[in-house]
Amino acid sequence: MSEELDKSLEMEDDSVKSSSPEEKAHYQKLLGETKKYKLSGMYKDWFLDYASYVILERAVPHVMDGFKPVQRRILHAMKKMDDGRYNKVANIIGFTMQFHPHGDASIGDALVQLGQKDLLIDCQGNWGNILTGDSSAAPRYIEARLSKFANDVVFNPKTTEWMASYDGRNQEPVTLPVKFPLLLAQGVEGIAVGLASKILPHNFVELIDASVAHLRGEDFELYPDFPTAGMIDVTRYNDGLRGGAVKVRAKINKLDKKTLVVTEVPFGKTTTSLIESILKANDKGKIKIKKVDDNTAQDVEIVIHLANDVSPDMTIDALYAFTDCEVSISPNSCIIMNKRPYFMGVKEILRRSTEQTMLLLKMELDIRLHELEEGWHMSSLEKIFIENRIYITIEECETWESVIETIDLGLNPFKPLLRREVTREDIIKLTEIKIKRISKFDTKKADEYIRGMEEEMDQVKNHLAHLVDYTIDYFENIRRKYAKGRERKTEIRNFDVIQATQVVVANEKLYVNRKEGFFGTGLKKEEFVCECSDIDDVIVFLRDGRYVITKVTDKGFVGKDILHIAVFKKNDTRTIYNVVYRDGKNGAIYMKRCAITGITRDKEYDICKGTPGSSILYMSANPNGEAEVLKIYFKPRPRLKKLIVDLDFSELAIKGRSSMGNIFTKYAIHKVVLKEKGVSTLGGQNIWFDDTIRRLNADGRGTHLGEFLSDDRILVIAKNGTYYTTSYELTNRYEDEILRIEKYDSEKVFSVTYYDGEQKFFYVKRCTLELSERPSELIGEHKASYIIEVNDDDYPQLEVVFGGGHSARPMEHIDVDEFIGVKSSKARGKRVSNYEVGKVTFIEPLEKEPEPTDEELEDEEDGPVDLSLDPEDTSNAKQMDLGL
Question: Which of 141, 618, 744, 786 is catalytic?
């Protein structure tokens, strides 16, 4: 019968409904004999109870002391065990289990986490490492005790609210009377049922400053500070509330051109997890490195060795973009208050904590004042009792009540001197005074003791009257005692936005089948387009004017008859598209210039007007806004006199991508031919040179070469003694070892020192450099010749140190401007000295007045002559100048 009942209870309603009438009646009979339960209501109530328990008793900290229950119970247990010596962690865990109804593992983990925060617990032994992620030793091997700071700010049984422990055998605190914003100092993270709390740690000293500022009625700001240091961007911190986020970065330094060193890790990451993320990014081709060494000991030291053709600056950006060197943390400041969870910003938490500290200090002062008043009362009463020998009057009393009455009567004349009434309990305490104390009673010492209590009472009353100032002094005292070594570790910075597509390594090759309309990195047999990365976007134009931006893929289809395909750079305003198209099958011919800075990915657009049958006749994508000149051939027709005309794109304005452009002609075109390449119609472009990979860039990496216009060139002087000039296209590669690279100036005069291998002497020459696409010799072609230095000072000065048999000869300084004139770059120059030279070096240049130009000399000759004499100047020079 029970098996059939169980079967009936397990069956769903649908299965019962599908049964035969006899079976249904049978199951209804069985169900009628049992009590029915509404499971949904039970689950609802139980789940709510469970969720409330986890939120209130496990995962979320209380706003008053900043502790989760397990942390509070650990500290309470350690205080009860505290005798000044270290206790084994295993013993602390066992003692805490009297108050915490959970296993030893959860208590041990919470205790280790508290110890690693290095604030409340004085640790001894291997407590793990937050930098490397190494775990602590077993609880039986490590020891702990409360820190001096914890004893000062966390405990006071007189101001603690107590409650029974879970088994009713002990008392535990509801909340500890913490007089410091510990919640913000330590931070906390907890996951409850349908709720989470994540409060980031803040700087110890800054919390004190903020508390003092609040007490003074001033505003303040609070930002996280992590024990792992690093850098943080707090632009979107949002006071630690939901919806906010902070970016945290590792600190990466360039040891040299081929080596990077990570010295600080982001909060929440370890050196192990960081290295794993770096190796993973390298395996995916996002970055390019040789190897990673972990030299971390007391401090973080992760050494990253780079490949030969990789820029360290770009690699640093790539590390932030593709690895755990940069992480985003979303705070969620949730706390328990009035037995309910609340979302409260960190500034409000600090205000409440500061007010709570002031309230606790007031309670302590009130308690102390009451203790002093009671002490003064009893000391005064005891003095009266002994000095006036009232104790002798009780010798004849036969009952306890008569003793009390006799003492009370004896005290009556002195009661006006006291500050409160004398109670029965006071009299009983007088009867408990031992004869030994009475016999040794010293009136002078008693008066001093009472006077000391009176002074302390006045001091306590003064503190209560100036409670805010007293609280400020309390915080300042905490700073003096414990702030040393707790300065801010995490650097607050505003991070630049790193575009992943700009720093990712080009780890793929892009191919295209123009006729069939396919593109991708997997079409190895098709036409090669360019190198790209697997996260790049590509822009594809079809012959009919349609274009689309889409992700790089292994193989993709966009439409037949692909006219142009390239890697797309978002917000690129310098790449200008020059287009000539026919509107419809027989429509007019239009011309346009536009930039495409950003559109919706995978959405189809049209660079023409969108008329069916349109066709692009000519198109170019110019990376620096160049405007070429085309030669247009028309189809012959009656009355058409000019069959060939030029189209100069520089005469067209650059408009939006959706503009239709200008009408060029209504006549049919036979063909379009490029007549001449154009120059840039845009403003100058700032160019930098990254000497590590010997590439130009417009991203600010390396040495700034200047602002370049269309005709400007770059001058390169190589260490092999040659020089050449190039364009400033970012695709240029400079494979030679470069001695000097800069913007070319045809008027600049260079001073060059070199050793002539043929003559076996050191030479110096001054020259200007001509434009040269090919390497030109600057020091001759002899194999033993080598260049020493290139200088561009106006009045250079050369220091000559002699060597060999002439090493005793004093060094000489040569005024190069007077020593040799400006000649051709092909000239040999002038020998530095006929003596054996050991070293030649350019030193600080000379300061001279610039020589007047020919025009300035002509102006002086044509100008009036001043024939006036200075009566005090009798020099011959003056008289000779005047012809006297």
Answer: 141
